[in-house]
Amino acid sequence: MTKVLIVEDDRAMAVALSDGFAYEGFQVEVATDGEAGLHLAREEQPDLMILDIMLPKMTGLEICKALRDEGSNLPIIMLTARGQEIDKVLGLKLGADDYVTKPFSFMELRARVDAVLRRSTGKGGNRNGGAHEFGTFRVDLDHHVATKEGTDLDLTPREFRLLGHFIEHRGAVVTREELLDDVWGYDTIPFTRTVDTHIAKLRKKIEDDPADPRLIVTVHRLGYKFLG
C-alpha cells in the first residue's frame, strides 16, 4: 500500500485530503505543523509527501531543504497559495518534485501524485537506465551513483532524472518545455528558467569546463543537446 504523508495546518483541508487519499486506497499520515511533518518524514518513510509551504514551527521550504540536504529522495508535492510564485520557484530549486496552487480539486492533485510516483519508481523518467561513461564522467542511473575522475559526485534526484532524459535523447535537440514535461511532470510551461538554473548547476558538476560545456551544449533559441 502506498503511504502518503500530508503536512497541512488547515485542519479542514488536512481532513479532506486524508479522507480522499484513504478512499483511494492510500495509507495516510497527517502532520499539522512543520516540525511534526519533518519528524514523520524521517521516521515513517512515506512514499510521497504533500507539503504546504506556510506552516507553523517550520515552513515547507525549510522541510524540503532539510530532507534534500540529508540525501532523501522522498517525492514532494508542495501546496502553494495564489501570489506565492517566488515560493514555487524556490521550492523547485530546493528539490520539490511538483506544486499545486490553492484552491485545487482533489482530481488535479491525484493526477499530480500519479505522475510524481511514476517518475520516482522509474516508470516515468530515466527509461534509459544502467551505467554510462562519458570521458572521465560516469553515471549509473539505476543506482543513483555518479563519479568524475573516480571522485563521487553529489547529484540531486532531479539531476539524475535530467541526465536520464538527456541520455535517452542523446544527440537530439531537447527543448526546455520537453524537460519540464518529462522531468518535472508539467502539462503547462510555468518556469522555463528553472531548467536553465538546474542545467547550470549540473554542468558545474560533470563538465571539465562548465563555461565551455562539451556534454550538455546549448542550442540557441531551441534548448539543449547532449553530446556524450
Short descriptors:
228 residues, alpha/beta, Rossmann fold, Arc Repressor Mutant, subunit A, 5-stranded parallel sheet, 8 helices, 12 strands, 21% strand
Q: How would you sum up this structure, described in words?
A:
This protein is of the alpha/beta class. It has two domains: 3-120, Response regulator (Rossmann fold), CATH 3.40.50.2300; 131-226, Winged helix-like DNA-binding domain superfamily/Winged helix DNA-binding domain (Arc Repressor Mutant, subunit A), CATH 1.10.10.10. It has helices spanning 11-23, 34-44, 60-69, 85-94, 106-120, 157-168, 176-184, 192-206, and strands spanning 3-7, 27-31, 48-52, 76-80, 98-101, 131-134, 137-140, 145-148, 151-152, 173-174, 216-219, 223-226. A hairpin with a 2-residue loop joins strand 8 (145-148) and strand 9 (151-152). Helix 2 (34-44) runs parallel beside helix 3, helix 3 runs parallel beside helix 4 and helix 7 (176-184) crosses helix 8 (192-206). A five-stranded parallel sheet has the order 2-1-3-4-5, sandwiched between helices. A four-stranded antiparallel sheet has the order 6-7-8-9, with no helix packed on it.
